């Protein structure tokens, strides 16, 4: 079965749109500030898609498209203003930033309550405690894909391939919160194929096209492909999708799997941030 991330993300966006309309009746407009520094083509597409999703879900958006020459001080000062602006509920600085700006300093500057990416150490810590309310977008999207496809997580062997701060580590935390038995593997893991043979659910977030092949997985495994690898203008996941057809019980396509879920969950975080900033309305 192919998991249709486009369809499921559409349902979530519809839910957000309706809830945001209810807030609007109370005089509250959930609003996201998106900051882009420079002209990275992929980042420009992501930012455009985030603004589009806002307009589809009754979420307000303000974008700051700053030149490559923006100094760290200028960026930190803008974030400070957005932190203090009561009409802004979420602050998102698109990564990567130009080399002269320290990404960690920027992440630390965003007020945790407005950190809709869930990158701030306070939110990362809350996530580890299983207590966070703003959830990391791609990992939360993966959990939604599984749940809304009727896939049981509790008690399952879940293997995450990749240990990034954006996907690998936080998705492992969320799977653990759902009572899975979680294994994190990475580039230095010695017996990956052996470990994968035992996995009921595999989350592939490696960043290498078609890395996970048919022989590596067990019959009936659920495969979630987080990879976005652009080769000659075509998108490839981290999983050999065609090779796995007929062997996996469920699999996400690229594009149209995890990708659209990230933005849907970002919208949900903006809505939740607004509610939390207004006495948990
Ligand atoms: N760059 C790539 N993915 C992301 C993301 O989820 N959030 C931000 N802020 N930047 C990114």
How does this model look, in words?
The strands form three sheets. A five-stranded parallel sheet has the order 5-4-6-7-10. It is built from ten helices and ten strands. The mean pLDDT is 97. With 281 residues, it is an alpha/beta fold. The protein is globular, with a radius of gyration of 19 Å. The chain has two domains: 27-111, Leucine Dehydrogenase, chain A, domain 1 (Rossmann fold, 3-Layer(aba) Sandwich); 137-259, NAD(P)-binding Rossmann-like Domain (Rossmann fold, 3-Layer(aba) Sandwich). The longest helix is centred in the N-terminal third of the chain and has 21 residues, at 5-25. The protein binds guanine. The site of guanine has 7 residues, from strand 3. Guanine binds at residues 92-95, 117, 137, 166.
Concise account of the structure shown:
The chain is α/β, with parallel strands linked by helices and 281 residues long. It has helices at residues 5-25, 41-56, 72-84, 103-109, 121-128, 137-148, 168-177, 192-196, 241-244, 258-276, and strands at residues 31-37, 60-66, 90-93, 157-161, 181-185, 201-204, 222-225, 229-231, 234-236, 250-251.
User: Cα-atom Rg, whole angstroms?
Assistant: 19 Å
Shape: globular
Tell me which oligomeric state these chains represent: single chain
The helix/strand class is alpha/beta
The percentage helix is 40-55%
Number of helices: 10
Strand content: 15-25%
- Write down the CATH topology of the largest domain: Rossmann fold
Whole-number mean pLDDT: 97
Please identify which CATH superfamily of the largest domain we are dealing with: NAD(P)-binding Rossmann-like Domain
What is the annotated CATH architecture of the largest domain? 3-Layer(aba) Sandwich
Give the N-to-C terminal Cα separation.
39 Å
Largest sheet: 5 strands, parallel
As for the number of domains, it is 2
**Level-1 CATH class name of the largest domain:** Alpha Beta
Strand order of the largest sheet: 5-4-6-7-10
Report the order of strands and helices: HEHEHEHHHEHEHEEEEHEH
Uncertain regions spanning at least 5 consecutive residues? none
Strands, total number: 10
Bound molecules: guanine
